[in-house]
């Protein structure tokens, strides 16, 4: 910072300064400079005062500028010192961080080794726990089996004591029975028991067969009773049917006798009717033959049924009547008996139209 220059302040001749404390006028007011009471700071007065010179203000500004520059320089030195201190602290912190990283890496390796050891120990502990549980369950099962075997042994001992008398009895029986009763064997008691078992099974088979035969006999007897009942029922039904058939036979024989009597009574009447029927059929055949000759029909009388013959005859007669009516109309003869609507033919030429049902 540049050295401060000496400043010199030039002022006008001073007047006597008097503070006004009285309100009344004075005689010597012309020679007195009145200074009012001012409450503003000095720099504001210098800036706002019209009597202050520009040089004074400039000097004042330079003083303030030098002061600010000095403060700024001091702040810069302080900032530089603080930055250097911060850099030193940063370097120390980095060193500490590096040392911490080294320690952490070493500690991580140690932790990893401890974790591996811990996992191995946990696995081994779990295996030991499972193995202990398995052994414990096996021990419990074996203990239960041992208790069951002991209980069975006690029950077998009781049975042995209970069946001891039967063994004594069997030995006495073996001594009393003949020698050739059982085939030669090392243990005659077992042979005797096998013989008894065989006989017992044979007895059971015979009893079961007897029961089966008895059941079959009962079933057969029940079937026989049922068949007898059915046979009796059928006999009753057949007898009732036979009685009904006999009644029908008697009724039909009576009807046949009455029909025979009626037939004998109506036999002569039937002969007369047959004769008339034959004459009528012969007359129809003769008339049909005459019509066939006039009209030149193809079929003879023996190959045409009675209805067709009668139709041909009727058609032929109608044609004859129409011809006669036309002739009479042309000649002027008016005879009502020859009209087609009310024909009255002669008795000689009269022909009956007969419809006969052939049986």
UniProtKB/TrEMBL annotation:
It comes from the Eukaryota. Keywords: Coiled coil. InterPro entries: CFAP_domain-containing, DUF4200. Residues 69-103, 132-166, 210-258 form a coiled coil. Residues 58-175 form the DUF4200 domain. This is DUF4200 domain-containing protein. It comes from Patella caerulea. One of its GO terms (cellular component) is cytoskeleton. Residues 333-359 are annotated as: Disordered. Residues 338-351 have a biased composition (Basic and acidic residues).
């Amino acid at each position: 910072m540049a050295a401060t220059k000496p400043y010199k302040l030039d002022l006008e001749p001073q007047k006597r300064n008097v503070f006004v404390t009285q309100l009344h006028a004075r005689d010597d007011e012309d020679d007195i400079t009145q200074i009012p009471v001012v409450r503003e700071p000095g720099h504001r007065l210098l800036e706002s005062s019209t009597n202050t010179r520009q040089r004074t203000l400039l000097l004042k500004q330079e003083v303030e500028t030098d002061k600010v520059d000095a403060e700024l320089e001091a702040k810069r030195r302080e900032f530089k010192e603080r930055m250097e201190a911060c850099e030193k602290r940063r370097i120390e912190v980095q060193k500490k961080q590096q040392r911490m990283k080294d320690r952490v890496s070493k500690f991580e390796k140690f932790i990893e080794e401890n974790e591996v050891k811990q996992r191995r120990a946990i696995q081994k502990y779990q295996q030991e726990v499972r193995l202990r549980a398995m052994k414990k369950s096996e021990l419990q099962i074996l203990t239960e089996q041992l208790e069951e075997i002991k209980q069975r042994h006690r029950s077998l001992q009781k049975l042995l004591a209970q069946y001891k008398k039967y063994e004594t009895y069997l030995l006495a029986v073996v001594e009393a029975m003949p020698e050739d009763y059982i085939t030669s064997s090392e243990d005659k008691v077992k042979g005797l028991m096998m013989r008894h078992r065989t006989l017992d099974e044979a007895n059971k088979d015979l009893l079961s067969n007897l029961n089966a035969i008895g059941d079959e006999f009962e079933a057969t007897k029940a079937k026989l009773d049922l068949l007898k009942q059915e046979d009796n029922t059928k006999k009753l039904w057949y007898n009732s049917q036979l009685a009904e058939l006999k009644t029908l036979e008697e009724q039909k024989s009576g009807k046949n006798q009455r029909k025979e009597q009626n037939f004998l009574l109506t036999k002569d009447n039937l002969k007369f009717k047959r004769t008339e029927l034959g004459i009528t059929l012969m007359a129809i055949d003769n008339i049909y033959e005459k019509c066939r000759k006039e009209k030149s029909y193809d079929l003879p009388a023996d190959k045409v049924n009675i209805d067709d013959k009668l139709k041909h005859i009727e058609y032929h007669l109608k044609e004859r009547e129409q011809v006669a009516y036309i002739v009479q109309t042309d000649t002027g003869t008016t005879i009502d008996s020859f009209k087609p609507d009310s024909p009255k033919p002669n008795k000689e030429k009269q022909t009956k139209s007969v419809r006969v049902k052939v049986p």
